[in-house]
Write a structure and sequence with these properties.
By secondary structure, the protein is α/β, with parallel strands linked by helices. 35% of the residues lie in helices and 16% in strands. The protein has two domains: 17-155, 3-Layer(aba) Sandwich (Rossmann fold); 174-350, Rossmann fold, CATH 3.40.50. Helix 2 packs parallel to helix 5 (147-155) and helix 7 (210-224) crosses helix 8. The longest helix is centred in the N-terminal third of the chain and has 15 residues, at 80-94. Mean pLDDT is 93; it is low at 1-9.
């Protein structure tokens, strides 16, 4: 098998159909959009298809750099060996010229290989890495490089130009109008600050304690006469219930039905307080002022890519770490003082005039 190693700034010839693989999280997809934009810039006549999963596919709705989205639903209709094989066969029938593996994992590398594409770009990591024709060799140390830059660095093996470091997420006019109408139905349209809080996160180690959110919500309501909107994911009712129980004051609790609706609700807020999570990246892509609580995650790689975002973290001697094997109970997140988050939120609100 012949392996080509494109030099930096060398575009590939005759690329009519391109597949980009990013079948993981919401933040992963948002932080991939600058790389997708650079690919579009370099291959303007190619049909660009993105392979996503049900969770992160909605992020791409309205993205001008993407022609099609293919959804790999490995827990649904593509479940099991039979479902997998059927999906892989459909990829092969597409006859892509180029596959770009932004999601570094064994299955995406395998999909690139069985696609039959002449050009297959990815990182020289995980299984089937030797089947890539264009490879990025190297490893990123924690605390050095943002995910946006990692993705741009990879596609620059076959692209010219620097690209823009701004994630893309576009709301449709009707989505914004529906969110406004919902707030009006709750009588939230009275000129007061609207503080959105999203206390969820993909794993326990990322979640700031509920009692801390409750204390912060009360302080913000009392000091700024702010309305508090608690937003939750599908399985997070218990989280928001605990916050409401611990609060002295009142909060409106809402569970958006889709990622698109969540984005529209976040965009209505004057400030969003959240953990390191998909909603954090949504708020940042929409340039909503955001205060994000970080625990053991690599904050340099995953901080919200927005000038309106502030991260709050407790510096620990054990960082960078393996969060899932923490021996001290994730003190970085669980013992992060309310005062630190309060300082960041109050500074953000003081900087704004209503």
């Amino acid at each position: 098998m012949k392996h080509q190693h494109a030099s930096n700034g060398k575009t590939l010839p005759d690329i009519k159909k391109m597949l980009i693989i990013r079948a993981d999280g919401i933040g992963d997809m948002l932080n991939a959009t600058p790389a997708i934009a650079l690919l579009r810039q370099n291959y303007p006549s190619a049909e660009i298809t993105v392979l996503a999963r049900p969770l992160n596919a909605p992020v791409l709705h309205g993205n001008p750099d993407v022609d099609r989205v293919l959804i790999f639903d490995k827990r649904g209709k593509h479940r099991g060996l039979k479902g997998n094989l059927k999906f892989f066969h459909s990829i092969r029938l597409e006859k892509f010229d180029l596959v770009v593996v932004l999601h570094t994992a064994t299955i995406p590398n395998f999909i690139a290989y069985i696609s039959g594409a002449q050009h297959r770009l990815g990182r020289y990591q995980k299984g089937f890495r030797s089947t890539l024709t264009h490879r990025w060799h190297g490893k990123y140390r924690k605390g050095e490089t943002h995910e946006v830059d990692r993705n741009l660095e990879l596609v620059k093996l076959i692209c010219e130009g620097e690209g823009k470091r701004k994630p893309f997420f576009k709301l449709m006019p009707d989505e914004s109008a529906d969110a406004e109408a919902l707030l009006k139905s709750w009588k939230i349209c009275n000129g007061k600050f609207l503080i959105g809080m999203h206390p969820g996160g993909s794993s326990f180690d990322k979640r700031w304690p509920e009692k801390n959110y409750a204390e912060l919500a009360d302080k913000l309501a009392n000091r700024y006469d702010a309305d508090i909107l608690l937003l939750r994911g599908p399985d997070e009712a218990e989280l928001t219930d605990k916050i409401c129980e611990a609060m002295q004051g009142h909060a409106i609790v809402y569970g958006p039905k889709t990622i698109r609706e969540l984005g529209a609700m976040l965009a209505q807020c004057d400030l969003v307080v959240c953990n390191d999570s998909g909603p954090m990246h949504l708020a940042a892509a929409l340039d909503v002022p955001t205060v994000a609580v970080f625990g053991p995650t690599d904050y340099v790689a995953w901080r919200p890519m927005s000038e309106n975002a502030t991260i709050v973290r407790r510096d620990m001697p054990c960082w960078p770490c393996n969060a899932h094997k923490c021996k001290i109970g994730w003190e970085c997140t669980k013992k992060l003082p309310v005062e630190m988050v309060w300082d960041a939120t109050s500074m953000s609100l003081e900087a704004r005039t209503k």
